[in-house]
Specification:
OB fold (Dihydrolipoamide Acetyltransferase, E2P); single chain; RuvA_2-like; DNA polymerase, domain 1; alpha+beta; about 200 residues; Holliday junction branch migration complex subunit RuvA; 5-stranded mixed beta barrel; globular; 3 domains
């Protein structure tokens, strides 16, 4: 298993980044690719999880080992796959997810795409008391300010990222309407949208 990669982010789209490591480009799926700066030469440390299926081998990337641990634990819950795990971590505050599990807050957990009451209950049963990792309030080692210029295109790209995470059109349209007059960068649009959905 590839535990960690260090390199320069040379490309990103709404669901992944390409990390150049000594001339080799690694395709890495992330919860919020817009959190990674692509216009400087600074190297990034990305902790990875290698997911193997019959038809695909994919790398998933995280800014801390703790986030990766939580992702791997989430995958052990019946009904949660990699896409669902990324959606749960996308807002960038994994500590809130741990808190919801420990406090048996099903109402918060079911707000994530693909998580119904049965899966939320399973998360609590399987994970409560086992998440003995210290999770930071915000991601470390990531430039959370995208260098993309403030423009309406950033909002559209952020909405595409939400679609990639599995959120429905109704929820996305509400977020788009709420944020359409804001001048933010794509990363912050994603974070604000996820915050809006979790708080409702």
């Amino acid at each position: 298993m590839i535990e960690r990669l260090r390199g320069q982010v040379i490309f990103r789209d709404h669901e992944s980044i390409t990390l150049d490591v000594n001339g080799v480009g690694y395709l890495i799926y992330c919860a919020n690719p817009f959190a990674y700066d692509i216009n400087d030469e600074k190297e990034r440390h990305i902790y990875t999880y290698q997911h193997v299926r019959e038809d695909a081998i994919r790398l998933y990337g995280f800014s801390t080992r703790e986030e990766r641990v939580l992702f791997s634990r989430l995958l052990q819950v019946s009904g949660i796959g990699p896409k669902g795990g990324l959606a749960i971590l996308a807002e960038g505050n994994a500590a809130l997810v741990v808190q919801a599990i420990e406090e048996e807050n099903e109402a918060m957990l079911v707000k994530f795409p693909g998580i119904g009451k049965k899966t939320a209950r399973q998360m609590i049963l399987d994970l409560k008391g086992t998440l003995d990792v210290t999770l930071p309030h915000k991601s470390e080692g990531v430039n959370v300010q995208s260098v993309m210029p403030m423009q309406t295109g950033a909002l559209q790209e952020a909405m595409e990222a939400l679609r990639a995470l599995g959120y429905g059109e109704k929820e996305i349209k509400k977020c788009e309407k709420a944020l359409q007059h804001e001048e933010l960068e794509a990363d912050e649009y994603v974070r604000r949208s996820l915050r809006l959905m979790v708080e409702r």
